[in-house]
Write a structure and sequence with these properties.
By secondary structure, the protein is α+β, with helices and mostly antiparallel strands. The chain is 47% helix and 13% strand.
Length: 143
């Protein structure tokens, strides 16, 4: 049996608690029976009902179990037409996006602390050697 194709207009007609379709990664899911069981509450699903819910689904970081549950609700695929909105996400996210804006600062900070520690240790060793040398000279002078 061929997979059924839905347009955005078809999906948009299924946006109530008793008849709820979602589009995730260009696949259409009938989530009507799952609305009451959804751990995040029905409002979350109703907010994206009848639309592309890809971004909302991936932003939450659903578990493998949630993705398996989703497979059981698959009813077809989305047939994109001219004028339809572009896909909101290209693929499942395995990890949250990295915040690299301050990563360089953290590395530099650790490097500065490390180098400062080495300089302090070297200065301590130098001063200890100087003090030992002075103590040796004073003992030799008094003998």
């Amino acid at each position: 049996m061929a997979e059924k194709e839905f347009t955005f207009q078809d999906v948009a007609e299924h946006n109530t608690k008793k008849d709820l379709f979602l589009v995730i990664h260009d696949k259409v899911y009938d989530s009507t029976k799952f609305v009451d069981e959804h751990p995040g509450g029905e409002e979350v699903m109703l907010d994206v009902g009848g639309q592309d819910a890809t971004e909302a689904f991936e932003d939450v970081g659903h578990s493998d179990e949630a993705r398996e549950t989703l497979e059981h609700m698959l009813v077809g695929s989305l047939k994109r037409q001219p004028g339809d909105p572009e896909p909101k996400a290209t693929g499942p996210s395995l990890a949250p996006p990295a915040n690299t804006s301050s990563a360089g600062f953290g590395t530099i900070l650790y490097a500065v602390i490390f180098v400062g520690g080495l300089v302090a240790f070297g200065a301590y060793q130098y001063l200890q050697a100087q003090e030992a040398q002075q103590a040796q000279h004073s003992q030799e002078a008094s003998a």
